[in-house]
Amino acid sequence: MPSKKQKKIAAINDFSGFGRCSLTVSIPIISAAGIQCCPLPTAILSNHTGYNDYYFDDYTDRMKPYYKKWEKLGLHFDAIYSGFLGSERQIGIVTDFIEKFSDEETIIIIDPVMGDNGRMYDTLTGELCRSLKKLTAHADILTPNVTEACILTDTPYTSAPDESTLNEICEKLLSYGCKNVVITGIVTDNKIGNLICRTSGEKTLVTSPLIGSSRAGTGDVFASVLAADTVNGMSLEDSVRRAADFVSKAILLSDDQQLPSQDGLCFELILGDMIPPIQ
Ligand code: PXL
Q1: Of 87, 139, 220, 279, whose Cβ has the fewest other Cβ atoms within 10 Å?
Q2: C-alpha–C-alpha distance, residues 147 and 156, integer Å
Q3: Which atom of ligand 1 is nearest to the CA of 122?
Q4: At residue 185, what are phi and psi to the nearest 5 degrees?
Q5: Angle at CA 205, nearest 5°, toward 140 and 221?
Q6: What's the CA-to-centroid distance between 13 and ligand 1, angstroms?
Q7: Ligand 1: which of 84, 111, 128, 221 to mutate, judged by most atoms within 8 Å of the beta carbon?
Q8: What does the angle CA 196 – CA 202 – CA 207 come to, to the nearest 5 degrees?
């Protein structure tokens, strides 16, 4: 009997050598889930921008020549997952990439990486943020945190938006054209929630106990698990639940190791959780 064809995900994100974010998170997590992860770098950094100093090499000019060779190879992806973008021109490049390498079956996951805790990341310009709005229209699943959801919808930032504000944010994000939104890291009392909003109007809040510290790269770990699980056929709600559980477990372990918050989540210790059961 022929076995099921292995899936592949194109991960468009930066390569940061230290600090556990972007490609250094996505490649191991997606691979552990049994999926081939094919990276298209947007920038190369010594370490992420959450540290005081870093080397930053913008990869904009090299992205098209790089994936031209993928075109020649006739590649096609089951999912395209885009994360941190290094320049405004990369919005057009990612759009072109989606047109070239997807069909109606391809799941497009867009993590609009812009900031956290009410602050924009260093390398993000206002122009890039505005252009990211256009990119969201292509997403089957858009995964902003609360800060990013506020920036994208021109909503004043509050760490714990109330239900009516969240509803307005969801409506606005969906009006840009994406199919599903997952707003991550919504803090309420002693819980942390991820709100799934669908074009049908149906909303589901997936909550976890609020435990452990706030850490760099958490959104990247979350989106990587979500990308892997949805490509493996899991429902959006179950994928969000599993991503939230994986993140919570990794945060507890990282706190236990007394890892500095900038150094991210020591997810390596639980990568085994991503391995699917043998069929
Ligand atoms: O985790 C988000 C992220 C991704 N890539 C780079 C970053 C950050 C957050 O600081 O600096 C380069």
Answers
A1: 279
A2: 9
A3: 11
A4: 70, 40
A5: 60
A6: 9
A7: 84
A8: 35
Quick check: 213 pLDDT over 90?
no
pLDDT for 105 beyond 60 = yes
pLDDT of residue 123: 85
Q: Which amino acid is at 44?
A: I
Burial 233-259 (b: 16+ CB within 10 A, else e): ebebeebbbbbbebbbbbbebbbeeeb
Q: Which two tokens stand for residue 218?
A: 């958490």
Write out the E strands in 125-279. Answer: 141-142, 180-188, 191-198, 203-209
- Residue nearest (by alpha carbon) to ligand 1 atom 7: 48
Read off the pLDDT of each residue in 94-115 and give the average, rounded to a whole number.
Answer: 97
Tokens standing for 269? 């210790």
CA 113–ligand 1 middle distance (angstroms):
7
Which sign does the torsion angle of CA 61, 66, 70, 71 carry? positive
For residue 33, what are the CA distances in angstroms to 163, 274, 277?
A: 34, 5, 10
Residue range 200-209: mean pLDDT, rounded:
93
- Statement: residue 2 has pLDDT above 80: no
Q: How far apart are CA 125 and CA 166, in angstroms?
A: 25
Residue with tokens 């997936």: 206
Q: Whose CA is nearest to atom 8 of ligand 1?
A: 48
Burial of 204 per CB tally in 10 Å (0-12, 13-18, 19+): middle
